[in-house]
Amino acid sequence: MSANRQAAAVSPWRAPILFAILAVLFLLEGTVRNGLFSGSWNTALAILNMGLISAITALGVNMQWGYAGLFNTGVVGFLAIGGLAPVLVSLPPVDGAWAAGGPRLILALLAGIGTLAMARIVHVRTRRGWAVALVLIGGFVAYRWLFDPAVTAIEANNAARAGNIGGLGLPVLMSWIVGGLFAAAAAWAVGKVALGLRSDYLAIATLGIGEIIVAVLRNEDWLARGVKNIASIPRPVPYEIELQQNPEFVDFAARWGFSVAEASGIWVKLCYMLLFLVVLLAIILLAELALKSPWGRMMRAIRDNETAAEAMGKDVTARHLQVFVLGSAVIGIAGAMMITLDGLMAPTSYNPLRYTFLIWVMVIVGGSGNNWGSVLGAVLIWFVWIKVEVWGPNLIGVLVGPLPDGDLKAHLLGSAPHMRFIAMGLVLLLVLRFAPRGLVPEK
Amino acid sequence: MQSPSQPQPFLSAQGMRGGYGKADILHGCTLTVDRGQIAVIVGPNGAGKSTAMKAVFGMLPLREGRVVLGGEDITPLSPQDRVRKGMGFVPQTHNIFPTMTVEENLEMGAFIRDDDVRQTMAQVYDLFPAVAEKRKQAAGELSGGQRQQVAVGRALMTRPQLLMLDEPTAGVSPIVMDELFDRIIEVARTGISILMVEQNARQALEIADIGYVLVQGANRYTDTGEALLADPEVRRTFLGG
Amino acid sequence: MDILNALVAFLNFVFIPAAAYGAQLALGALGVTLIYAILRFSNFAHGDTMAFGTAITILVTWGLQSLGVSLGPLPTALLALPVGIAATAVLVLGTDRAVYRFYRAQRAAPIIFVMASVGVMFVMNGLTRLLIGVDEQRFDDGARFIIAVRDFREWSGLAEGLALRSTQALTVVVTAIVCAALFWFLNRTKSGKAMRAYSDNEDLALLSGIDPERVVRLTWIIAAALMTIAGVLYGLDKSFRPFNYFQILLPIFAAAIVGGLGNPVGAIAGGFLVAFSEVAVTYPWVKVAGYLFPGWQPGGLLQLLGTEYKFAVSFVILIVVLLFRPTGLFSGKSV
What we know:
The structure holds three protein chains of three kinds.
Chain A: H1 14-31, H2 41-68, H3 75-90, H4 97-126, H5 129-156, H6 172-194, H7 199-219, H8 221-224, H9 240-244, H10 247-256, H11 260-292, H12 294-304, H13 306-311, H14 316-342, H15 352-366, H16 371-400, H17 407-414, H18 416-434
Helix pairs in contact in A: 1-2, 1-16, 2-11, 2-14, 2-15, 2-16, 3-6, 3-7, 3-14, 3-15, 4-5, 6-7, 6-14, 11-12, 15-16, 15-18, 16-17, 16-18
Chain B: E1 11-18, E2 26-33, E3 38-42, H1 49-57, E4 62-69, E5 72-73, H2 79-84, E6 87-90, H3 102-109, H4 118-127, H5 129-132, H6 144-156, E7 162-166, H7 174-189, E8 193-197, H8 201-207, E9 210-215, E10 218-223, H9 225-230, H10 232-238
Parallel strand pairs in B: 3-8, 3-9, 6-7, 7-8
Antiparallel strand pairs in B: 1-2, 1-4, 4-5, 9-10
Chain C: H1 3-39, H2 46-66, H3 77-106, H4 110-132, E1 145-147, H5 149-156, E2 164-165, H6 166-188, H7 190-200, H8 202-207, H9 212-238, H10 242-247, H11 249-259, H12 264-282, H13 286-292, H14 310-324
Antiparallel strand pairs in C: 1-2
Helix pairs in contact in C: 1-6, 1-9, 1-11, 1-12, 1-13, 2-3, 2-4, 2-9, 3-4, 3-9, 6-7, 6-9, 7-9, 11-12, 11-14, 12-14
Keywords (chain C): Amino-acid transport, Cell inner membrane, Cell membrane, Membrane, Transmembrane, Transmembrane helix, Transport
Organism (chain C): Paracoccus subflavus
Transmembrane segments (chain C): 6-39, 51-71, 77-99, 111-132, 168-186, 215-236, 242-261, 268-286, 306-324
């Protein structure tokens, strides 16, 4: 999308070297203990795992931006709706919840969707505003009449411990795909409306859907208990406590010279890491294959010259919708993976600065249009984002050391966490301006 | 430098060579207009007619050649500075401020003037009585011909000595075209030189004091409008018989 | 049927709050729409810049309060406002020079500007946090009420009370003055007309001798004033929390788009439309209905949507406009 797309030759060693540097950073984090690094493999792997999830999110954003130039500012929402999947798929069913209001709830949701479909049909057939309004009002009343009692009944069911509809008790890995589907559905609805208009409109519309999805998760207690959170989401990997009680594992840990507690933590994180790597590589493989296919060539042709592509009879809006839905599905998968890793659904944690705009920094820094660049940018920026939390106060501590104790010193020390936002904003602006093709430019 | 005693045309653009990218569009094109004259540039599509006019106005970097206006070399000046030197330019499209009223359009035309512009505005309204009636209406709501009048009026607000028109009659009906040409003659009678590019070559040459037939960015024929219309070669090749 | 009490309840819970909120949104949307008209992009940093201007104003207000300066019944923040505007103007002019001017010279795609504004948003957000932290701050002083509930009840003898907070009245009055001044500027002064001309037709404005950089600078200064005033009024009315200023971005965008991006009259109308819809949809109408139809016992609160979904209202309005009239009700892209 930038003016300097015509590539100056980039050394083929650039990406491998950058990835090697990244690996060294993680090695240092795992082994060296000083003011900069923790020297804990548990910390290093925890950062890496979240970094891998960020990388998958960044891949989704990169599909939308790098392949098609679509600016999605609702990443947080697509992550959140993806995160709903583990809750609804993998949690055990809540006793009595379904009986309390399940069918009625489904009926209400169907009525809601039916109303919208009906309104569309009426609009297309009659073109009469009042008729559409009538359908919508009638549909809304019916929806609320079905919905409200169902929700009240479900939320009253074992309110202290559950109060939600519960899950299906299926394997949590399955929920990753479902998370992608959820996000794809939401993206289809938004894209259908906002694509094909001025490019800013998609940005604004996705900002809206992002906030609304998070608001729904926060306030619809029947869905995922809202702000009461859902903990204990099943894991696809062993629990630490199981490992610690397993004599074989205790032996194994002792042989490597780790304490059992530490070793079990590392083992679990390694298992997650492998799972995440499999997903990440699979998505990259599919993305690269797609990009090299006729479909991918067409996408790039559209991105580089929308007017020309349109003149050649390509349905630009339809292609944009496809890539927008696909990218959002990938973000949804990442959202489901994140909730699985945390084992906790806490809707209040979905902050747009952290989950939308930080992802954007990752994509731009990594190199928009390049999948490996997005991965690199994501893991690197995530590492820095986490470490700055430690480095910032240390640095400011050193800088203000000579100052006398007092309000100013306290204020400066307290302001360190805010520096992260300024730093990230500056990184985004500097890369956008001086290296718009990112660390690993598109080939 | 020509000596002051020797009469020289008001506008003299000599041997213009240049283009937007690597390839030149103009290959030694020369245009001159005397005071109060109407000069018309005609030629086939892609001959560089509009480009030649843009070069005169400074919207195209020249590799060779120079533009002299009223004895002063203005080759290095930007279009804005050329406006201050007495050039007025009416682009072919997007030549008005559509949501602003007719009157505001004229005011914006006079933006660089700090003196009282009411007299000039009255003259423009005299020239175009049809738009004078609609002075409080948004210019974008007017008909195509009236919009062209607003566009010409806007360019006249700086009291230019040379008015350049890029296909002023593109997309208007024949009646409106005749009317516009009448107005242009009227403008020229006040002593303003006119340089215009026209697609409707025959009609334009009829009012031209001097005509330039451009082919591939260079002068092919230069003569009075009348003479060009009479030239069988020109008629056959460029005027369709 | 008790029309009077119903009317008072309506005024108290719907009309007055929505009018004040609408005025705040209108000022915000005016800023967005002006920036769109001249610089041709949707400014995602708008909310956070509002927060920055408000934060400066709050700090100066506290300073004035500690010096014992006050405006009597009016909030001291009004005295501090010019300082906030000036600081914000300096900041946005600096931002334009450091960030946007480069892309303008490149004639970059609008979406690149939007992206850059996201970077600016981060920085502004961090600056505001540095200045004042992330917590809620109150800074209103002076008279709390113009009409207090109890006084109104005693005066009118009605069961329903009516409150008009001074910040609400102040918001509407200040907005009216600002809008009048802005329209006078845009329609009557040479600089204002130059801005409209630039918005209408950039190339022709250049030919006419209008200096684009001057127009851009003027736009940022006006936008800074609009942002700071909107932010301070919003903060006085509802208290200041930086995150709320990020969230208000959506209703502001909705208002600007409903009115037609680039159209100031539309932005004002859009602001009130969004605000009234939001309040009307999230207000529990059971009380008003109770006065109007005494015999009727509705099962619920007659609330169409919980207040926690107020942003959904902006979103739905936005979607409807995009579906049926993407250029907005007043057709946009022009000042």
